[in-house]
Amino acid sequence: MNTKKLTFTIMMGALGNALCLISYLLQIIPGAVALDLSLLAVFIAGVYAGPKSGFAAGLMAGILPGIMFGPLGTGGILGLIALPLGKGLTGLTIGLLALMLSRIDNRIFKALLCVPLILLAYIPEGIFTYAYFTVLLPLFLNSEALSSAIIYAVMTKAIIEVAIMSIIMAVLIYSKAVSNFIGAYFYKTKPTINQTIKQQ
Fold it and tell me: What global pTM score does this model have?
């Protein structure tokens, strides 16, 4: 990973933590469900800079959630390890899936294809999250597994958030201005997203 990609990855990791903090601060009613869009930064890193960047950005973006739901929550040190790893899996997966976008020239089709790719990219983390609640927490913390209702509520919320982020990513990919702006960071000229992805 060159210097520019490393810097971009760190910026996306920081953005992911900032988005997580914003969602926490906007939780005006204690106990209310807050919309967490922290994975958006991970998707951006994976799509525009490749699977390595996506994985690393995911690990970094999971630090604050890992602390909040790990040592400061009920997950202990396990949460601090598992949450970043889960986000890293999503970043890695979308980085690999996004390679297909480099073969598409039609911006509308590329944007539309991004939606199912983003949803597919969450599957590894979704499986990992389910295993975290049902297997890892009871095994390592010697505690009772969460009820199925709570687990399904958490998973449903996550899927809704990913669906929203898939639409946001589709808009970003469709936008020439955004693709050129991000591409110009890596190149002297202003390439399309095709050129950006092909150089991964």
Answer: 0.85
